[in-house]
TrEMBL record:
<comment type="function">
    <text>Bidirectionally degrades single-stranded DNA into large acid-insoluble oligonucleotides, which are then degraded further into small acid-soluble oligonucleotides.</text>
</comment>
<keyword id="KW-0540">Nuclease</keyword>
<protein>
    <recommendedName>
        <fullName>Exodeoxyribonuclease 7 large subunit</fullName>
        <ecNumber>3.1.11.6</ecNumber>
    </recommendedName>
</protein>
<comment type="similarity">
    <text>Belongs to the XseA family.</text>
</comment>
<dbReference type="InterPro" id="IPR025824">
    <property type="entry name" value="OB-fold_nuc-bd_dom"/>
</dbReference>
<keyword id="KW-0963">Cytoplasm</keyword>
<keyword id="KW-0378">Hydrolase</keyword>
<dbReference type="Pfam" id="PF02601">
    <property type="entry name" value="Exonuc_VII_L"/>
</dbReference>
<feature type="coiled-coil region">
    <location>
        <begin position="273"/>
        <end position="400"/>
    </location>
</feature>
<dbReference type="InterPro" id="IPR003753">
    <property type="entry name" value="Exonuc_VII_L"/>
</dbReference>
<feature type="domain" description="Exonuclease VII large subunit C-terminal">
    <location>
        <begin position="133"/>
        <end position="444"/>
    </location>
</feature>
<keyword id="KW-0175">Coiled coil</keyword>
<feature type="domain" description="OB-fold nucleic acid binding">
    <location>
        <begin position="17"/>
        <end position="110"/>
    </location>
</feature>
<comment type="subunit">
    <text>Heterooligomer composed of large and small subunits.</text>
</comment>
<dbReference type="Pfam" id="PF13742">
    <property type="entry name" value="tRNA_anti_2"/>
</dbReference>
<keyword id="KW-0269">Exonuclease</keyword>
<dbReference type="InterPro" id="IPR020579">
    <property type="entry name" value="Exonuc_VII_lsu_C"/>
</dbReference>
Amino acid sequence: MNDDALFKQLGAERDVLSVSQLNARARQLLEDVFPRIWVEGELSNLARPSSGHLYFSLKDDRAQIRCALFRQHASRLKVAMKDGLQVRARGRVSLYEGRGDYQLIVDSIEPAGDGALRKAFEALKAKLQAEGLFEQSLKRPLPAHPQRIGVITSASGAAVRDIISVFQRRAPFIELVIVPSAVQGREAAPQLVRALQQADRAGFDALIVSRGGGSLEDLWPFNEEMVARAIADCQTPTISAVGHETDISISDFVADVRAPTPSAAAELLSPDTQALLRQVEQLERRLLQRLRERLGRARLQLDNLRQRLRHPGERLAQQAQRLDELELRLRRALTQQLTQQQQQLTHLRTRLQTQHPGRHLSQLRDQLEQLEARLPRAMHNQLKQQRQQLEQLAQTLHLVSPLATLGRGYSILLDDNGTAVRSASAASAGQRLKARLHDGELSVRVEAETPYTLSLLD
């Protein structure tokens, strides 16, 4: 059976197709009916295998379809693929025969609807945040008791009715001025900018920029860069109350205060009248209490001052008594000072007498007489010690002197030069020598030389 036969009407009897034949026929039918289409939906179940292909699903609130984006097309994507992104995908409807899965073979993807707006929202948010427009240091505090408030919103919208209702209930004395502006559509952003500039120059105590809920596209004027910069340039404290509690806009980040709803913005600026009355009553009670305490302290102070106040005559008597006391103290002080000075004079006179030169000379004279008496004794003792020392040295010298040797019968032979003859070989026969004895000298002549040797006995 060829491929053309697959598309012929099956017979009523019993024409049977294999599973692969059925899937092939279904795939070809799908590809012929849907050659190339655009499908919009939300990305989910994104898978990135190592092959470089992308597999994901596109879904809406009632259905989903499997998608395949092959590598040659995935490499040219300009969209950051992630789950939750709203996109438009171009491709052809097909069927994966191996599993019988119905799928979309995608060759191009672009952001769509909320996805594109969300991307633009994040880009502008990052830009303004980098410029510092969201810094808390730039936020101005809201006035505690505003008298005149400007409301920038649609004059016929539900938001303005909610704001007026809250002010009528909580603070009807506050003046509300509606600055009308479109809050949806292409003309909304320029109108909002003009309304903000006009209201900022009008001298309001505070501004409310508001609208009711809606889709991201409906709220988009409050995400425009021109509106954000106009809010940032306002010198008047500004509240952003755009949409419901879950809606977030760029104006919320730039404004001084974000309110989750228009009614909440009105409550922030409208003090509760009953609460103010209670606060005034409380302050009145505190004021009366403080006045009573202040009067009590003043009364006590007055009583103290009255007790301290005395008659001038009594004060003069006290001063006279004080003067007498000071006079007595002065006399005692003078007497004491004179006594101290006399004692000091006596002490100095005694010291002077002790250190008189005559007395010092007498002491020196006595000392000189004592030294004169000690000098002869000291000289005699010193001479005696030196004489004894000399005798000891003479005895020592005599013991080692050659003269002592001569006294024992020895003599010394001297030649003509007076040199001692120490050896027989130093003299010759007929030579004249001098023999020095203990008590004199003799002239002798050498007759002959007779050398001899000494030997030790064993």
